[in-house]
Design goal:
With 323 residues, the chain is α/β, with parallel strands linked by helices. The chain has one domain: Rossmann fold (3-Layer(aba) Sandwich), CATH 3.40.50. Helix content is 38%, strand content 17%. The strands form 4 sheets. Strands 3-2-1-4-5-6-11 form a 7-stranded parallel sheet, sandwiched between helices. Strands 7-10 form a two-stranded parallel sheet. It starts with 6 loop residues before the first strand and ends with a helix. The model is unreliable at 319-323 (pLDDT under 50). Bound molecules: nicotinamide-adenine-dinucleotide and uridine-5'-diphosphate (2 copies). One uridine-5'-diphosphate (UDP) binds at residues 82, 177, 189-190, 193, 205-207, 212, 214, 250, 272-273, 276. InterPro entries: Epimerase_deHydtase (IPR001509), NAD(P)-bd_dom_sf (IPR036291), UXS-like (IPR044516). Keywords: Cytoplasm, Decarboxylase, Lyase, NAD. This is UDP-glucuronate decarboxylase. Residues 9-236 form the NAD-dependent epimerase/dehydratase domain.
Length: 323
């Protein structure tokens, strides 16, 4: 039987994760409506898709109502890097709350599935390690990360209330730190910062003592998990952790990046930002069981691909690196 192509909305589709997701959906023959206001991204991420007749780019801010026809929605629109989401914290909250209400209203009218890209940040500075989906989290509601963390928590609430109250079919992924090509050169996240610094021979800025931990997932693995979650049986809503359980200290990451870049950069220590979580590692048993998913790309391989990307970007556009 020939599979009918679907029409899929990807909000935030011009961003780092969103653009890889659009690539994947187009490759399997579906139609993609990419909805983005370019708050933290540029058309460069989707330039190569513009000539594809199955791809449509719509400039739109999801905090305003949106009327389209589609079969499913992947909802990614939201600034994700701390310096991006802290630039205009009120807008960040509006994007999570008003944006989710509009996207859920759209899904309700069309009676279609909608997937929310939530985050490991809903666990805050976790007291449970590794983090399981039944842990309710430890978030400072008035701190500088709250606009993002509490916004995403409120969005999860909205998804489950639309599900219970209006029967909307929802899927919620809690994404852990993800990296790869098309990360922003200057978004301040650790992988992009360290690679750019190492390639340019600048000091590697380690915040705090560098003993805080994270677990880094390559973007292709994450996209695979998102697609499997959307295609999973209707009674599996999540929330489900998607991330790589390979935990390491930020200092170890710095050393690996310096080595892989063959860089002479030295490590310098800078103050730890407030509310910076001390440790983070996903428990992915639920994803393994229900989605038959686990990350396949090793950190070394993923970093090498990411370094190659940044190398090209910095060589081609040296002015970007100065910003
Ligand atoms: P990104 O900043 O590259 O992408 C977000 C996209 O959303 C951008 O293209 C941006 O322009 C768009 N956007 C922001 N506000 C908007 C609005 N009001 N209307 C329309 N578009 C808007 O970030 P990313 O890393 O690709 O993250 C994508 C999603 O995944 C986000 O929801 C983020 O919270 C979630 N997530 C990412 C990570 C990660 O490590 N990358 C971890 C956890 C969760
Ligand atoms: N909405 C939208 N597109 C649609 C349907 C609804 O953007 O196709 C918005 C609508 O503007 C509303 C929100 O989604 O503010 C929530 O919709 P819902 O039906 O839940 O709420 P109501 O319209 O009853 O306030
Ligand atoms: N970090 C660092 N140097 C940098 C950028 C980040 O040491 O140049 C640290 C940061 O304090 C945090 C970790 O790396 O402990 C991950 O930071 P990122 O902003 O990438 O992600 P998040 O804190 O949201 O997990």
């Amino acid at each position: 039987m020939i599979k009918q192509p679907k029409r899929l909305i990807v909000t935030g589709g011009a961003g780092f994760v969103g653009s890889h997701l659009c690539d994947r959906l187009l490759a399997r023959g579906d139609e993609v409506l990419c909805v983005d206001n370019f708050y933290t991204s540029s058309k460069r991420n989707v330039q190569h898709m513009l000539r594809n007749p199955n791809f449509e780019l719509i400039r739109h801010d999801v905090t305003f109502p949106l009327y389209l026809e589609a079969d499913e929605i992947f909802h990614l629109a939201c600034p994700a890097a701390p310096i991006h989401y802290q630039r205009d914290p009120v807008q960040t909250l509006k994007t999570s709350v008003h944006g989710s209400i509009n996207i859920l209203g759209l899904a309700k009218r069309l009676k279609i599935r909608v997937l929310q890209t939530s985050t490991s940040e809903v666990y805050g500075d976790p007291e449970v390690h590794p983090q399981t989906e039944d842990y309710w989290g430890n978030v400072n509601p008035i701190g500088i990360r709250a606009c993002y963390d509490e916004g995403k928590r409120a969005a999860e609430t909205l998804f489950f209330d639309y599900h219970r109250q209006h029967g909307v079919q929802v899927k919620v992924a809690r994404i852990f730190n993800t990296y790869g090509p098309r990360m922003h050169v200057n978004d301040g996240r650790v992988v992009s910062n360290f690679i750019v610094q190492a390639l340019r021979g600048l000091p590697i800025t380690l915040y705090g003592d560098g003993l805080q931990t994270r677990s880094f997932c390559y973007v292709d693995d994450l996209v695979d998990g998102l697609v499997r979650l959307m295609d999973s049986p209707a009674d599996f809503t999540g929330p489900v952790n998607l991330g790589n359980p390979n935990e390491m200290t930020i200092r170890e990451l710095a050393e690996m990046v310096v080595e892989l870049c063959s860089s002479k950069s030295e490590i310098v220590y800078r103050p730890l930002p407030s509310d910076d979580p001390k440790q983070r590692k996903p428990d992915i048993r639920l994803a393994k069981k229900n989605l038959h998913w686990q990350p396949e790309v090793s950190l070394r391989d993923g970093l090498q691909k990411t370094i190659a990307y940044f190398d090209t970007i910095l060589t081609r556009r040296p002015e970007t690196a100065r910003r």
